[in-house]
């Protein structure tokens, strides 16, 4: 059983999950992804694969993301997407 | 002298207006699907505007489609060295109408509607010229109403209706054209049924794809390979419907078909219901990555006959539904060479449409051409002269020669101008060579030279 509200939320772990989800969507072995990696400018993520990215993230964190609450700036980088997950109390 | 690139524009005028004498005012409002599909319920959507500054500058493609008597509305003045280069190639360019101001996140039409001086210039063309947008949405209807310049083509409501992928699937079924197994979903209840069918396909080891009815070509797709993912998206769509109380949908569920080659063909529907087949092109991929379109497509006579026959019946059907103008159809070949003649109907201009002028004017008979985009890392806005110097002799110097024409230069600087830092740019090129082999070798050298420019900028 998870007690997310009481647990110390490990931001680094969320960042790692976001990185795993990004790598899964890109389906490229050679790509280097860090917390600072910019999702659109550097990796070319767009409206086509963002939905897939969110679904991978839902799988990994066992959460449900409401896409209506997401805005452009949340997709700035791996770090901003991890912060969104934390702000929403999803992890 | 009559240039060889005039025929398509003349034919377009006759198709739309019944006369080849009326000048056209072109508007490159790319990704018009965003306007058509704005209130349609497809796959969950995330409000991303990052790429639209690039898409909106694709307006410059219209420059090379219009004839010398026509007009082109642009969001910004083209690079003067690029214009001079095009003129030096002997291309007779149209009159330019530039918007008073531009917002990178607005289409050219939206900027035009916010440009009093341009609106006044357009109003002076009322009764003289006719508007030809990339695709007709309510924005282009508003521009026609504001300026009094007639809209050549069908009303926005007709264009929207015939551009839905649900419509494509229905008429392909009605006309007996081969297509993948699939189901249209206009309600959540229809989705429930389609999901059951999709589950069976997945259990049989097949792959499934969900498509937004109004997704832009190649976007708004979700490829699904396992039941867990299917259940996940099914629940998401249910949850949205339950929360809003709106059970409408505009989605397709289809089997993902193995393909070896993507095709794109175009025809024009005339006012009298006649249909003219314009061309078929083949998508070029390298390692699964889309690189552009090659022409001519290497089809057998049997494959070509299927494509032409499909164009004829689709055109006649669209005419019946009140559509008039250019139609591009995405099609494909399966691994056995069988044709899937209708994957998607785009009742609007297409990337390929904007290559016709160059083909007619610059490609010698029997030669090959390749239209593709090259990515560039742009630190600060670049001048056309920098690209010209980098390409050297690979830049086309005249009709009858081999080389590349820069088809759109504004997309190189679109994102760097819209943002605050280094950004990705796109250079759209049109390569011409005697053989397909020489074409691919030239492509590779151009990619290397452009990458070197980027490295130079970085240092």
From TrEMBL, chain A:
It comes from the Bacteria. Keywords: Phosphopantetheine, Phosphoprotein. Signal peptide: none annotated. Residues 9-89 form the Carrier domain. InterPro entries: ACP-like_sf (IPR036736), PP-bd_ACP (IPR009081), Ppantetheine_attach_site (IPR006162). The keyword Nucleotide-binding does not apply. This is Carrier domain-containing protein.
From TrEMBL, chain B:
Residues 169-376 form the ATP-grasp domain. It holds the Pfam family CPSase_L_D2. The keyword Cell membrane does not apply. It comes from the Bacteria. InterPro entries: ATP-grasp (IPR011761), CPAse_ATP-bd (IPR005479), PreAtp-grasp (IPR040754). The keyword ATP-binding applies. Keywords: ATP-binding, Ligase, Nucleotide-binding. This is Phosphoribosylglycinamide formyltransferase 2. It comes from Actinoplanes palleronii.
């Amino acid at each position: 059983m998870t007690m997310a509200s009481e647990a110390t939320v490990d931001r680094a772990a969320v960042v790692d999950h976001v990185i795993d989800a990004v790598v899964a969507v890109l389906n490229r072995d050679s790509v280097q992804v860090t917390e600072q990696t910019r999702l659109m400018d550097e990796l070319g993520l767009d409206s086509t694969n963002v939905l897939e990215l969110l679904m991978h993230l839902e799988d990994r964190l066992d959460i449900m993301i409401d896409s209506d609450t997401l805005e452009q700036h949340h997709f700035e980088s791996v770090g901003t997407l991890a912060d969104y997950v934390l702000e929403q109390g999803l992890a | 002298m009559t240039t060889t690139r005039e025929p398509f524009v003349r034919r377009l005028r006759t198709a739309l207006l019944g006369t080849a004498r009326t000048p056209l005012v072109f508007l490159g409002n790319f990704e018009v699907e965003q306007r058509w599909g704005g209130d349609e319920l497809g796959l969950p959507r995330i409000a991303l505007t990052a790429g639209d500054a690039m898409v909106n500058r694709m307006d410059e493609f219209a420059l090379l489609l219009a004839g010398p008597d026509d007009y082109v509305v642009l969001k910004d003045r083209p690079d003067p060295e690029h214009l001079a280069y095009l003129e030096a190639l002997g291309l007779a360019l149209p009159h330019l109408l530039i918007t008073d101001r531009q917002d990178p996140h607005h289409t050219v039409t939206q900027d035009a509607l916010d440009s009093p001086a341009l609106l006044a210039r357009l109003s002076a063309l009322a009764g003289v010229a006719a508007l030809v947008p990339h695709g007709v949405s309510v924005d282009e209807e508003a521009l026609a109403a504001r300026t009094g310049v007639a809209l050549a083509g069908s009303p926005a409501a007709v264009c929207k209706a015939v551009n839905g992928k649900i419509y494509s699937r229905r008429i392909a079924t009605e006309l007996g054209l081969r297509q993948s197994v699939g189901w249209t979903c206009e309600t959540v209840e229809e989705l429930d049924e389609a999901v059951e069918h999709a589950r069976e396909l997945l259990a049989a080891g097949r792959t499934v794809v969900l498509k937004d009815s109004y997704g832009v070509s190649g976007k708004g797709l979700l490829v699904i390979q396992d039941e867990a993912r299917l259940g996940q998206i099914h629940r998401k769509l249910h949850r949205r419907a339950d929360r809003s109380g709106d059970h409408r949908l505009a989605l397709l569920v289809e089997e993902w078909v193995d393909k070896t080659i993507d095709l794109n063909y175009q025809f024009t529907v005339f006012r009298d219901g006649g249909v003219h087949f314009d061309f078929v092109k083949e998508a070029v991929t390298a390692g699964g990555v889309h690189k552009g379109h090659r022409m001519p497509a290497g089809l057998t006579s049997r494959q070509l006959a299927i494509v032409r026959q499909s164009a004829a019946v689709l055109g006649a059907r669209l005419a019946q539904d009140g559509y008039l103008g250019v139609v591009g159809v995405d099609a494909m070949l399966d691994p056995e060479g069988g044709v899937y003649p209708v994957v998607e109907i785009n009742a609007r201009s297409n990337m390929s449409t904007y290559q016709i002028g160059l083909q007619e004017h610059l490609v010698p008979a029997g030669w090959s051409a390749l239209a593709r985009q090259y990515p560039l890392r742009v630190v600060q806005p670049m001048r056309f002269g920098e690209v010209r110097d980098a390409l050297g002799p690979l830049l086309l110097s005249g009709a009858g020669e081999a080389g590349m024409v820069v088809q759109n230069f504004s997309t190189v600087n679109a994102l760097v101008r819209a943002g605050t830092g280094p950004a990705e740019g796109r250079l759209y090129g049109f390569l011409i060579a005697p053989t397909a082999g020489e074409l691919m070798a030239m492509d590779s050298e151009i990619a290397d030279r452009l990458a070197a420019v980027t490295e130079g900028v970085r240092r």
